[in-house]
Write a structure and sequence with these properties.
Elements: E1 9-13, H1 18-30, E2 35-40, E3 57-61, H2 67-77, E4 81-84, H3 91-96, H4 98-118, E5 124-130, H5 155-174, E6 178-183, E7 186-187, H6 195-207, E8 214-216, E9 222-227, H7 228-241, E10 247-250, E11 254-257, H8 258-266, E12 275-277, E13 289-290, H9 295-301, H10 309-335
């Protein structure tokens, strides 16, 4: 494995988001001596994700699009490590609002790196990039290695490729200790715009009589899948062991099409699940083959996923069944 580092204080951008909140939970539970700080926007819509650990994290009011607020947070908490997870991350929505996604993701990252530099700090920085930067590859190019060309096929993917390259630029120009990770598909109950989560939510809603049919987009895309908890643990291992300036793929070994995932989810349903392809869910361009090589990351960290696909699938559906029960309860209160 690669070099080891002592981390006492971390800063997570996007800490209230779907990934950032799981990362904060992992650190709080498994590394209790580490101070966990996070950037939180006043207009953030993710208010409940930190409910289980809210007394054990320190939130700082800032917006990555506001340079002075980012600089103030860094000067205040002076982290040993930064996990940069904050981003507008909806691929399909990026075709509708490309300028918003591009400006937020690219300029926000630039502001963060510039603030670190001007504050004269030297933290280890994990830059959360995405498998989307590789775009559409043919079968001869899989499993995808880190030296595959970047061919982004959506405005979101372009923004992540730009973040990725900014990480390299600040490393090579200013010797900032930036590690780039390209995450492949993971199951995340807290992020409803992911295909797997959207399916689980709809199954639960149909079971509770809140929805009549499940709508979907392209079912032919091939993905490898891991659990969000394994994914966030991988980010922690990257901070400890990976080499600044390098890029690492992170992903699972369970491979299936989106349609196969839907089939394996529906078999757990308590009722029949009618399905329909909805044209508005189809993207102008889709990335249909994402199978990573994670050899480089495993060699550097020794990381391996510990949650099985069956466990992750069951937890995903259980989460949305609980949310469906809440929705039914709220509807009954309004009805009365």
């Amino acid at each position: 494995m690669g070099q080891d580092r002592t981390i006492r204080r971390v800063l997570i951008t996007g800490i209230r988001g779907s990934g950032g909140s799981y990362l904060a939970e992992y650190i709080v539970s498994n590394h209790p001596v580490v101070e966990v700080h996070g950037i939180s926007r006043w207009h953030s819509t993710s208010t409940d994700n930190l409910s289980a650990i809210k007394e054990r994290v320190t939130l700082h009011e800032a917006d990555l699009m506001d340079f002075s607020s980012v600089l103030a947070v860094l000067q205040d908490c002076q982290p040993d490590a930064i996990f940069h997870l904050a981003a507008h991350a909806n691929v399909r929505a990026s075709f509708i609002t490309p300028n918003t996604v591009l400006s937020n993701n690219v300029l926000g990252t630039s502001n963060l790196f510039e603030a670190v530099r001007l504050a004269q700090l030297n933290p280890i920085i994990q830059l959360c990039s995405s498998s989307e930067v590789y775009g559409q590859l043919d079968s001869k190019s899989v499993p995808i290695t880190e030296d595959a060309p970047l061919r982004p096929a959506s405005p979101y993917a372009v923004s992540k490729a730009a973040q990725d390259l900014l990480g390299w630029t600040f490393f090579i120009s200013y010797n900032m200790r930036i590690i780039r990770t390209r995450m492949f598909t993971y199951l995340n109950p807290r992020r409803s715009d992911l295909f797997a989560t959207a399916f689980a939510k709809q199954v639960a809603w149909i079971e509770r009589g809140l929805q009549k049919e499940l709508v979907h987009g392209n079912l032919d895309s091939v993905r490898t899948i891991i659990d969000v908890r394994d994914a966030m643990r991988a980010y922690w291992e990257a901070i400890l062991h990976c080499k600044p300036g390098e890029v690492y793929n992170i992903g699972g070994t369970t491979t299936m099409t989106v349609g196969e995932f839907l089939d394996r989810l529906v078999v757990l349903s308590e009722v029949p699940i009618p399905r329909r392809c909805a044209p508005h869910l189809l993207r102008p361009a889709d990335v249909t083959l994402q199978i990573p090589s994670v050899d480089k990351f495993v060699e550097a960290t020794g990381w391996q996923p510990v949650h099985t696909f069956e466990e992750s699938r069951a937890e995903l559906l259980a989460y949305w069944r609980r949310e469906a029960d809440k929705a039914v309860h709220q509807a009954s209160i309004i009805g009365n």
